Amino acid sequence: MLQQVLADLKESGRHETKSTAGDKHETALAMLQIEQANIRGQLQDILTQRTVLEKINPTLSATSVMNGSLIKTNRGYFFMSIAMRKTNINNLTVIGISPQSPLGKKLMGLKIGESALINKLSYVIESLI
Fold first, then answer.
1. Where in the chain are the domains?
2. Is the whole-model pTM more than 0.70?
């Protein structure tokens, strides 16, 4: 979808014709270029996230939190991978967090029974799935 938007913006830039008000033309062209750069950035972010997800091996079982772990805590379920909104899976609410997030940094490497304290809240690891 973002690739199509980028292609559309490039096409708009090609068809932008100089009007009698040259400043309007230059402004429109500059805005198109800014929008193209923003779309390219979004596309790169998505491709990076896709690469992170593709590296996860769902068959591995770990004794400590690592990338790809489904973590059951006293405060809910977290999937260590990329930041994602809450998702319901089999009537469970799961939140995707990245290892770079504040909570992700605290949870990485912890084992069952260990805890992380963040914002005065304790997250106790109950199981790793």
1. 2-54, 70-128
2. no
